[in-house]
Amino acid sequence: MITDDKMTISLVNTAFESLTGYTLQEVKGKTPRILQSGKQDASFYQNMWKDIRVKGSWQGEIWNKRKNGEIYPERLTIHTIVNEEGIVISYFGVFSDISHNKVIEKEIEELTFTDTLTNTMNRHTFYEQLEDLIATSTENSEHAMLVVDLDRFKQINETLGNEVGDFLLTEVADRINSIVRANDLVSRYGGDEFLVTITDLNFQKDAVHFAEKLNKQLNKPFYIQDREIYITSSIGISFYPQDGIEVETLIQKADKAMYFAKQNGRNQYAFYFDELQTDAERLLLLESELRKAIQQKAFVIHYQPKVSLDTNQIIGVEALVRWANGTLGVVSPAEFIPFAEDTGLIIPISEVILEKVCMDIVDWRSRGIQHIPVSINIAALHFQQDDFMERINAILTKYNCSPQLLELELTERTVMEDSESIVHKLVKLKRMGFKLSIDDFGTGYSSLSYLNRFPLNYLKIDSSFIQQMTELQDKQAIVDTIILMAHRLHIKVIAEGAETKDQVKLLKEMGCDIVQGYYFSKPISSAAFLDFLELWEIHKQERTI
Ligand code: C2E
Ligand code: MG
Ligand code: MG
Fold first, then answer.
1. What's the CATH number of domain 114-273, 2.60.120.560, 3.40.50.2300, 3.30.70.270, 2.60.120.260?
2. Euclidean distance between CA atoms 450 and 456, whole angstroms
3. 110: pLDDT confidence band, cut at 50, 70 and 90?
4. If you measure from the C-alpha of residue 494 to the centroid of ligand 1, how many angstroms do you get, rounded to a whole number?
5. Quick check: bond before 338 cis, omega within 30?
6. Alpha-carbon distance 82 to 88, whole Å?
7. What are the boundaries of each domain within the chain?
8. What is the spatial distance between Cα 535 and Cα 538, in angstroms, rounded to a whole number?
9. Are 233 and 148 in contact (CB under 8 A)?
10. Which residue, 60, 207, 359, 498, could crosslink 144 as a Cys pair with Cβ 3.0–4.6 Å?
11. Pfam families per the record (predicted)?
């Protein structure tokens, strides 16, 4: 393109015509302003003209507009042509369309700066951007760092496959992106963990609002391959500058808060506080001590009797693991079992437990006690292993124990997916001779459809209902209804956690079949259980409700 000294176009070549879509006739006499895209501001052009005046030329990238309205990037060089006196008589512009280069550049940039799966910033970019943010923060700036970790994502990945897992992660990223503001930072930090920085808070409670909003977003169902999937997340929050002024520290502290939220039952958020530092150390210790305990098979099994309200007989026991550790003291299964589920350690732990139970069954048999079935708790992750049945069978065979003496307790959450494969697995277990029960009934995703699809023997009403039912009318109504419903489906009902005579009486009136709870006995060692059994036979009439 050639213009005169007033920037009036005098000549363009055919390359110009095909690139911009304008013919020579259309642009002759006009100024290059007809190509302007509006993407550069006035100061851009001022600088450009300054260069041209001072150096006699300018080179750079500029966004222009074609006749059809399309905006495109071009690499442009402008030269001035002067006469003998040094006066500008015309301008001379050469440019080329670089949109193709731009596309490639963008792809390269995305590959190095974003997480390719979710299109959010990758770890490296997130660090850099947060460092920049901190560097430019003023004395009054306050930001929140959130570590968002999906609960039980591992299970979803293992049961439904990586493809579903990947899809879920992109959906989660979209939902996070849909509620952040333009200046906030979002990154998939790795696996199922996302980092979000809420910048420039007015109040710390803004971060709370955000966390609540996020949990609400994530609790809505995801639709993947004709399935409806529910997930929850645990969120940890730290604040700049209160908890730290370095990226690393902020992430670490938010991470610890996230673990705290998980331990507290998941699907919630938690703030960092100083005592958490020691909690995190405890978790590290817990993991290494658990690994040792697995090696040494250092777990002990206690047994809690179940009493039939009909016959007043001990009709079974539940095996409950106990772990006393030299360094950590007695650690409750309520603490280490969920932790073991998260870390995958539950698989070897479950096998140690099953072995010990088998050994006790063999021991009881040698003492003439052959009729007491033992129920064991099956963790979700364990149940979902492909070779679950083979491995259980291998242990039973090793100790010559029959499945008839074993009852498997699965929680609602483990079987929440009413899928064909789960039904199939349960039917197979039942055929092999195992009895099946649903544990903690009433606390999970109460999809009732599985109750008649699954071949269940027992349903265990969660202790929270039993313990409150003598005071709270609505809890009593729930227990009553569960019993009725289960009986309709020919499933027997076990009430868990009955502590008082009143509770047991009420349960009997409502038609409950079996009771397990401190009222009859706490979980006790195998030796103590043998004594208990003897005494029970002697005094059982007196204990009739
Ligand atoms: P769960 O399977 O629902 O076990 C019942 C829990 O209620 C046991 O707690 C038991 O000690 C307690 N309990 C029984 N009767 C009463 C009562 O009258 N009052 C009160 N307050 N509590 C009562 P525990 O042994 O601490 O176990 C907690 C949970 O840890 C179990 O809940 C189960 O989910 C898990 N767990 C325990 N042992 C094992 C195991 O061997 N394998 C697996 N996978 N999980 C286990
Ligand atoms: Mg149980
Ligand atoms: Mg239970």
1. 3.30.70.270
2. 9
3. low
4. 14
5. no
6. 4
7. 2-106, 114-273, 282-542
8. 5
9. yes
10. 207
11. EAL, GGDEF, PAS_9
Whose Cα sits closest to atom 46 in ligand 1?
377
In this structure, the residue with its CA closest to atom 16 of ligand 1 is 497
Pocket flag, ligand 1, residue 440 (CB < 6 Å) = yes
62 CB within 6 A, ligand 1: no
Give per-residue pLDDT as tens, 2-31. 999 999 999 999 999 999 999 999 999 999
Ligand 3 centroid–CA 411 distance in Å is 8
Residue 229: how many CB atoms within 10 A of its CB? 16
Residue 180 confidence (pLDDT) above 70 = yes
Residues 465, 65: Cα–Cα separation, whole Å: 70
Q: Is the dihedral of CA 187, 189, 192, 198 positive or negative?
A: negative
> Does ligand 1 have an atom closer than 6 angstroms to the CB of 462?
no
Q: Give CATH for domain 2-106.
A: 3.30.450.20
Statement: residue 205 has pLDDT above 80:
yes
Instruction: Indicate the helix (H) or strand (E) that contains 392.
Output: helix 388-398
First-last CA distance in the chain: 103
Question: Is the shortest distance between the CB of 442 and ligand 1 below 6 Å?
Answer: no
Distance 439 CA to ligand 1 centre (A): 10
pLDDT per position as a tens digit, 481-525: 999 999 999 999 999 999 999 999 999 999 999 999 999 999 999
Ligand 1 pocket test, pick from 301, 320, 381, 459 with the greatest ligand atom count within 8 Å of Cβ, gives 320
Q: Which of 52-56, 173-177, 347-351, 484-488 has the lowest mean pLDDT?
A: 52-56
Q: Ligand 3 mean position to 439 CA, how many Å?
A: 5
From the CA of 442, which ligand is nearest? 3
Q: What is the mean pLDDT of residues 104-108?
A: 70
Closest-lying ligand 1 atom to the alpha carbon of residue 320: 38
Residue of the CA atom closest to atom 43 of ligand 1: 377
For ligand 1, atom 8, name the residue with the nearest CA.
320
Q: How much distance in Å is there from the Cα of 199 to the middle of ligand 2?
A: 45
Ligand 1 pocket, residue 307 CB under 6 Å: no
Q: State the DSSP code for 114.
A: B
The class that CATH gives domain 282-542 is alpha beta
Instruction: Give SS3 for 349.
Output: helix
Radius of gyration of the chain (CA): 35
Torsion angle defined by CA atoms of residues 445, 448, 451 and 454, in that order, rounded to the nearest 10 degrees = -70
> What confidence tier does 254 reach under pLDDT thresholds 50, 70, 90?
very high
The reply to whether domains 2-106 and 282-542 share a CATH topology is no
Token pair of 270 as six digits: 């938690």
Which ligand is located closest to the Cα atom of residue 304? 1
